[in-house]
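Notes from the 1:1 (GR / supervisor)

We went over the backlog. Supervisor wanted to see one worked example end to end before approving the batch request, so GR pasted a single chain during the call. The sequence is below; no edits were made to it. Supervisor asked that the structure be written out right there so they could see what the output format looks like.
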Amino acid sequence: MVALGKKEREKLASGIKLAASGENVKFVTTHRVKNDRIINNDFSFSPCLDEMNFNRSLIDISPMFYVALDYGGKIKLMNPMMLETLGYSFEEVKGCDYIEHFIPQNQQLKVRNTFNNMISTQSANEMITSLQTKYGKELVCQWQGVPVFKKDALDLVFCVGVDITEKIFSNQRIRQSEKMRIMGQMASGIAHDFNNILTAIMGFAEMLHSSLSENYQLSEYASSIMKSASQAEAITAKLGAFSRQNPFVLKPVEINSILEENIEMMSHIVGRKIKMRKNLCEKKARISGDQTEIHFALLNLAANARDAMAEGGELGISSRIIQFDKALNLPYDFRLSAGKFFEIAISDTGSGMSEEIKNKLFEPFFTTKGSDQGTGLGLVNVFGCMKQHSGVVMVESAPEKGTVFRLLFPLVEDDESTVSATCRSGSVTGKGY
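Structure output shown during the call:
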């Protein structure tokens, strides 16, 4: 290429500047050289990303969370992944106080102290916090924050985060699974030893009963001992069932019988301060079910009802057959198909629940109880049980109005059993029999 003249050099410099500002530039210069030969130079310039724009593009496509805050904690930047996960547009959060808007109240003071410490010490910091989404869900995130200074003045605090919610839950599940395994082993051992003691009690009671056949009153005492020992043996058998890690197996079962068998165990769980009221289906109804899993689901609901009625109250247990003429989509990702169902309703007169708590009810490890009172897995097991049975769980509750859990199990196709019942009012209704 021949040397450019002054005008061409000025034109070239101008083109480079325009390209740097984001424009496409193209121009041609023509030169006449020796022997009247003409040379054309074709110049084309395309915009290229500067370092800042390049980094911004990486942030925009990153699967991690990025947020930039000013010295007061107001949001200046938030990347698309974080916005999408939290359920907001940037227009909704721009200029908001990040800590007040996204951090749970019980963590706000700690996070603000860490934020201020980063600025005062001009150093990076790392911490784990919870984040509240627009829809009420809480995430757990691990953050690395660093203050960015421009001309010795704070420009912004830049934070990079990773969603570790699933990792935290996985670790908790592993620990809880190990606890349950140990509890199962303990329950199995206790049931075995207790059965040995009961066998001796029943044996001696039978011998005593035989030798006292002529004394009616003493013979009746011996019979009472035998009866009580038999009841204890039945309870021990259920404790043994709890300890077994059997696979989930569905087979035709008589659901009325399962419910009636569990009522006595439920009465032991709720205790004497709580009265029990029963209104059970009188005719047979068969479902395809796993008896042990249904047993655990009922006991979990009884335990929840007991905890909601610390000062005493009434536990209601009712059942009926109900028919739905069309399929329905229900809360908690349940879908109710058309057909006949066996409904078990367990109600309490306890403290009830707010809508916020109801929305989180079946989340793993969510609990309103202290760490020494609940694991947050009881209702998760109920949820899993109903999913496995292709059934539905519905919840009706309001603060200070008590709670009703309705478990709906699909009846097997050849079951035509009916029972007199009145369909309760509610957002989901069917024909009761």
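Supervisor's comment: The chain has a mean pLDDT of 79.
Batch request approved.
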